[in-house]
Amino acid sequence: MAVLTIVLLPLVGSVMLAWGIFQVVMDLRTAKQRKVVDRLTESGNSRRDREIKQTLLSKRAANLQNGFLEGLVSRLQMVRKIQCVLDQADLEWSASRMLVNLAAATLLMVVVTMLLQFGPATVL
User: Fold this and answer.
1) Residues 77 and 90 sit within 8 Å (Cβ to Cβ)
2) Which one of 18-32, 66-80, 96-110 scores highest in mean pLDDT?
3) Which of 59, 73, 74, 79 has the smallest count of CB within 10 Å of its CB?
């Protein structure tokens, strides 16, 4: 039985490795995956295309802003980079709204832990 196991395990492992490599190659060849790769690698875009895209992104982000706090946060430099990441991930989120919501959730968790009288090390 032990000899049979020693012979079968490498055979099964190599078959599974070959199947996994085949799956990766086939997934990278599909049109949807090529679109994702093209979206993530923006090196082919010219400077003019990037400026147009940045203008459209800022207009869209301005349309998604609802409050004063979101408008204030949207002026931060890192919001543009976060918005670019969100757009590459194909998410319809506003970076400023996401940051405001994260800050509100953090503040809520701090208040809850203070009310429940947890120590400061518990919050971290």
Assistant:
1) no
2) 96-110
3) 59
Identify the CA nearest to 81 among candidates 100, 52, 41, 54.
54
Query: Distance between alpha carbon 123 and the CA centroid of its chain, in Å?
Result: 25
Query: Residue 119: phi, psi to the nearest 5?
Result: -75, 160
What the block records as the tokens of 40 is 């993530």
If one compares 78 and 66, the residue with the highest pLDDT of the two is 78
Mean pLDDT for the stretch of residues 37-41: 69
Q: Sign (positive/negative) of CA torsion 66, 72, 75, 80?
A: negative
The helix/strand count (H/E) of the chain reads as 7, 0
Q: How confident is the model at residue 121 (pLDDT cuts 50, 70, 90)?
A: low
